[in-house]
Amino acid sequence: MQVGPDAPRSDVPSSICSKPCRPGQRREVRSRASRAAGTAENCDGYQYQADTFTCKMCRFDLRPNANHTACDAIPIVKLEWSSPWAVFPVLIAVAGIAATLFVVGTFVRHNDTPIVKASGRELSYVLLTGIFLCYATTFLMISTPDVGICSLRRIFLGLGMSISYAALLTKTNRIYRIFEQGKMSVSAPRFISPASQLVITFSLISVQLLGVCVWFGVDPSQAVIDYEDQRTSDPVAARGVLKCDISDLSLICLLGYSMLLMVTCTVYAIKTRGVPETFNEAKPIGFTMYTTCIPTRKRRPN
Which of 125, 223, 235, 267 is deepest in the core (most CB within 10 A)? Predict the structure, then answer.
């Protein structure tokens, strides 16, 4: 190698420190005396290049751009109506609502016939209302979350099941009391009239509504963006999920009352399994409760 003013430029030794860092890289400091002495390091993950020597983490709702020189907003996603996760439940809900309305129309058309009267018209209409709400809640669960939608979800998510199970519980309790009273006396038990049955049913439903009102007072509804649910190791795939602010504990408490009604109704269905065949209302209710409890037990988290 030639040294001197006449030496070729290609023979001049190059310094690693003299090469500038590319965008998204920082200079690694090896010596306090010379901060320029060091190799280039990439700002990886959710880091961006703050200055020549520093990489910093982006804010929780941001991700670095393509060359890690700045932070961009993380895209927000929500459940779309065109998603398969929405289309299939909507089809089931539409079919369920259509079937429920068909049954309601049949009951109205034959409202004064003996078979409709024997089924307990009042509680049957209450039960059909609860079933309708259970299917209709599907549309609230898919709608874009905001304060209004989140408030309606809190109200109707457990209300439909509470109405359904309150009506079934009142029916099974009535059957149980009638046959238990028949073993001891020929007089009819108290509170078996249609009006009394409706009062009992709506009293059970009011407990669910009272709990929701308390929940609104303690924790008002709001829509939030969850950046942790889909925060992947690759920032490009990171997404924020728009959803209602309902914790798992709140959801358990919301549906817990419906579960209590279901279990109590199942107990009465077991007690009334031996009623005469002519009283054919108890066995279908019992079968319904058994088939409901088994899947619920399977879904219980460990």
Answer: 235
34: amino acid identity, one letter: S
Cα 37 to Cα 17: distance, rounded to the nearest angstrom: 5
Rounded Cα distance between 196 and 177, Å, is 14
Provide the sign of the torsion angle of the four alpha carbons 39, 44, 49, 50, taken in this order: negative
CA-atom Rg of the chain in angstroms: 33
Rounded Cα distance, 172 and 180, in Å: 12
Q: How far apart are CA 244 and CA 238, in angstroms?
A: 19
The 10 Å Cβ neighbour count of residue 288 is 16
**Helix segments in the chain, DSSP class H:** 84-109, 114-118, 121-142, 147-184, 194-218, 248-271, 282-299
Looking at per-residue pLDDT, the higher value among 274 and 129 belongs to 129
Left (φ > 0), alpha (ψ -120 to 50) or beta: where does 2 sit?
beta
Q: What is the pLDDT of residues 150-176, one digit of tens each?
A: 999 999 988 999 999 999 899 888 888
